[in-house]
Amino acid sequence: METPHSEAGTDTGAQDERSPDGDSATGRIATFPNRLPDDVHGGIYPKGSPARPGSKLKPALLALVALVAAGVVWAFMREPAGSAAEQAADAPQPPLELASIDVAVAEPRVLTRRIPLSGSIAPIVQATVKAKVSGEVEAVTVREGQQVAAGDIIARIDTRNLLAQYERELAAVEKARADLELATLNRDKNRRLLEERFISQNTYEATESAYAGSVANLKLAEAQARLAKINLEDATVRAPFDGTIARRLVEPGEKVSPDSAIVTLVDLRQMLLSAAVPAVEIPSVEVGQIARFKFGGFSDRVFEGKVQRISPVTEEGSRAINVYIAVPNEDQALKGGMFAQGTLQLSSSEPVLAVPQRALRYEASAPYVYTLEDGKIARKAVTIGTQVESEGYAEIRSGLVGGEHVIVADIGDRKPGAAAKVIGTDIKPARATVEASRTDG
Asked: Relative to the CA of 439, which of 83, 181, 300, 365 has its CA 20 to 30 Å away?
């Protein structure tokens, strides 16, 4: 019968056979029993216990290994990317390419002060044509929008009564003329009788008085006949000047009396713009100054006029003063009542150094410009004077001396000192004279 000791010795011997050097104590591979004795499991982790080492320790170990491996891979992959970004940042940027229109020259310009204005226009020459005689309207020969010349017939009024009156006055003239002839004969005869002393002086003077009365009666009759003729002619209503019919106010068959309105006639060739100007600007407004403005519906067409007169009083409530501007309108494109918006040219300054407003940039409300110097972008702080709103220019009072090429385009993320170049050789300066509105900067 073998003892447990002999079994242990047998296992040890087997282990020695698998050991490369035959030494169980120093061998590289140690062989353990395939399973622990039941009493060991029962002593440390009772059989059936859920807290066995193989149930929780193994997954946790695998998770830890996976995290370590992922960190190694991430560090390996990040190193080249970071190096590439640093290399790209350190690489010099290519020069900023600018077109000739992206650069302007700082140079002296004449800035014309302007103030905004707006208002409605109306024809300078307009009239309501009225009837001069009473009667029934026989015909109205014109319609709204129709152009007429001076003397053209507009309407006719019934002339039967007027014609009869005229004929009566003509008859009165004939009678007065006959009476004058008789008075003349009596006067001449009595003069001879007076000379021969056949009649008294009183009798002759009575004859002379009758003659003078006949002369006066003839003149009166002739005057009344002329008046009747005028009334007869006035029954035909005519245009007083060249123009356009704005309103037709009567129709055939209506009764009219003197001063009854027949039509409204306007001359569109010369218009008048009435614009309210702030009272503080009036000292700068003078007769003859130029105004330019636009009307809705005329696209980019600009109309021009001159100040004709200035109202002597302010308008109630607005404290503004009306300025009246004459506007030529030979093509009669403008119509009465249209609304205009524009500017009135006031005084012009001496030439001042100016740049396009697009060149101005601001940092904490402080203006500056970018210039192109020796192929590089330079930043220069400037002081702004008059700003030319309508044309887009601004006076530079300090910071530039003139002749600099200022950049008007967006330079993106480029900084002062960055390289820049203009494509092409021509850098066109702006025109020498600019007219625009004034805003004090």
From this structure: 300
